[in-house]
Model the fold of this input.
Amino acid sequence: MSQPVDLFKKLTSHCKEYGFIYQSSEIYDGLSAVYDYGPYGVELKNNIKQYWWMAMVQMHENIVGIDAAIFMHPKTWKASGHVDAFNDPLVDNKDSKKRYRADQLIEGAMDKMLEKAEKEVEKAKKRFGDSFDETLYRQTNDRVVKYTEQASEANRRMNEALKTGDMAALKALIEELEIADPETGSRNWTDVRMFNLMFNTQLGNIAGEEGKLYLRPETAQGIFVNFLNVQKTTRQKLPFGIAQIGKAFRNEIVARQFIFRMREFEQMEMQFFIKPGTQQEWYDYWKQARLKWHLALGTPAEKLRFHDHENLAHYADAAVDIQFQFPFGFKELEGIHSRTDFDLSSHQDLSNKKLQYFDPETNENYVPYVLETSIGCDRMFLALMSHALQEEVVGDDEGNTRDVLKLHPALAPVKCAVMPLKRNEPALVDKAKAIFNQLKFSFQCQYDDTGSIGKLYRRQDAIGTPYCITVDFETLENDTVTVRERDSMVQERVSIDKVAGIVQERVDMKQLFV
Ligand code: ATP
Done:
């Protein structure tokens, strides 16, 4: 299909045209990096959330859910480290007045170096054919070695500067690598400075700093401060987890990749409380469990990969991302973090309230360690859409194409559409509506008679509906309909009373767990 950049453009316009996602406040020219979900978008998003909740809460006896408030006591964010350390390095271009994240500019330059090395390897592969020894070539070819070493040296210096908070070193690196504004080519940069990503607002009845409230930048802290409430009220024993789905807010510096990086977004997070010393075992367990969750949806394994963090956040002793191959490259989709006892201990210190677990096996009190899985619902949405949207030639005619959204049926926004073969035949319309009125009790269903049958099929393909049920003249004679399957486009004639069962079997979320 099309080139990646075209694919991304196509994807964003598809999302709008078919009612998945709209720019927020579009009539006022939109609000940057804020989006609204339309009728099909909200269904897909709810299904993603349901799949995650089922996998985490319903399928684990030792994981329970909560729904904490977005506003929290301001001390929460002091304890969590967000007030002091939730910063990104920002740099402005003096000519274009555009703002960038310094680390992302440097990463972009590193990617280009690595791309150059890959191109050399690809060229050599073609030149030498079967006799090509790729490993040897990578180790010995001057140009490949030079580009790879340059990238790794830039990476080392960037990580060092980020770790020590040395903004001047970041600026120097940008200059040495001759990084230009990606949009204008200008190299006229300001100094790099740190920028806190939390939005704040003011509590109504308290003036000044005292009443300063933050919009939560992650849902995790609502879980930590409720750790003992939940443990006591559910009588859970370690290891156990608390899961939550909810909004988070970050004043992102650069937010130009549609719903990949938003200022208001939704997270699905689970904190797993464990005995100190068992973190490696649980880290390995959750890495595999989360990868399995993605693969069950039919996402090809080569589009997913683990990426270890080199630059660990202040709270972590190990961290890995599950990256997905988005149309603009491999990027973080989900994070798995071994958070030690950092959060519970900090809250315990600042609140002066004990946040400890009494271990009945050892008769000891201790602060548990935590293993976190954290995924953005919107990023998951984007990953699914970018893999599912396909342009296909129908039959032998190259000019006859369809856009089809090959989402897993369990996640599809609409499970089946019912349509009369002809919209001006009252008997067909009545029958189709009667079938729709039965099916709607079982799943999200749609009645449609707004166009020719061919157009209706195309529209349902474009929103990912796994089944189309068509009522024709034979239906009136023998109570059978045609059932058209989205991907194969094969139509099967079945009796009306079998339809619900056929659809249910394929759209049931249970099949994602077997
Ligand atoms: P990034 O490096 O991309 O900024 P992060 O490492 O800051 O992400 P985490 O703090 O680990 O992200 O957040 C967990 C998950 O929340 C991410 O894996 C991602 O799916 C999602 N997420 C984070 N920031 C955003 C955002 N601005 N818009 C949409 N989703 C986000």
User: Anything to note?
Assistant: Residues 61 and 240 are 9 Å apart (CA to CA). DSSP finds 17 helices and 23 strands in the chain. The pocket of adenosine-5'-triphosphate is lined by residues 218, 250, 252, 261-262, 265, 267, 332-335, 374-376, 378-379 (CB under 6 Å). The first strand starts at residue 21 and ends at 23.
